[in-house]
Amino acid sequence: KVNAIISEHGHIVLGRMGIPRPEYQVGVVSLIIEGTTDEIGSLTGRLGNIPGVTVKSALTSKTLRKEDDHD
Description:
The protein is α+β, with helices and mostly antiparallel strands. It is 27% helix and 24% strand. The chain has two helices and two strands, in the order αββα. Strands 1-2 form a two-stranded antiparallel ribbon. β1 and β2 form a beta hairpin.
């Protein structure tokens, strides 16, 4: 379920790292995402609704410009 939801939101995922911890029967997935607050809320909300899944997020707000963009 987790992988399916992440895949559905793949257009906002810049990077992903998974750390399995089989000795504790858990795994940790770290995502770097870039999107609107609605897109991020959709991803985190859907993941958080899966039984046994805990979502922790840290957000930053910054307007990004590509290096070749000029005013």
